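We include this case.
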Amino acid sequence: MGLEYPFFLVNFKTAEGTAGDDGLAFAETIDRVADETGRRFAVAPQPPDLRRVAERTDLLVVAQAGTPRAECGVGDLSLEAVAAAGADAVYVSHPENEVAFTALGRAVDRCRELGLDSIVAVESRATTRMALAAEPDCLLFERPTDIGSDAGLIRSDPERIAAFVETVADERPATRTFVGGGVRTAADVARAFECGVDATGAASAALEAADRESWLRSIATAVPPAGSAE
């Protein structure tokens, strides 16, 4: 298990029409587009569908959340369950599901033991440096205010994304970079990769598209070929 770069991730979150058979059908559409275009896609399905998507597609599968079993309460999704379901990676933290920096190290270490890649969300240079102390596999740069917007940093201030990439490269080159928030078009995707990130993705734009497959094919034109960022 583990992530391969570059990729574009579609996060299902808890959107209508992305659970059960509907969610699997959407994942299979993404898988077909990936196969036919030669571009790598990842998907973050709803938690109950992790195993089905992992078993029925060749997509990279990312869990939307996960906590070490020793720290879980009733109803929490454990990292151990995520790994058993066949996921490749997990959002240890996300702008919509933040985790205290004091807990990051334990979660990242447990991911490593389980063979899961860890993704940690940050929104500034200061939080980037704090998160890098936990040695995560990947940092997601995304401001909560950019989620679902038409004016994310990738449009309004791409230089800030490039600075984030440079900071990670200088301080921990082994950590990969990922940008989200406000990514809606192929031009946004191209701009993200021009800033030097290893991955990007979207939720709202994919889920709201009138023709999801056509939207995905458009996005694929801006994703670098598989293996180009290895």
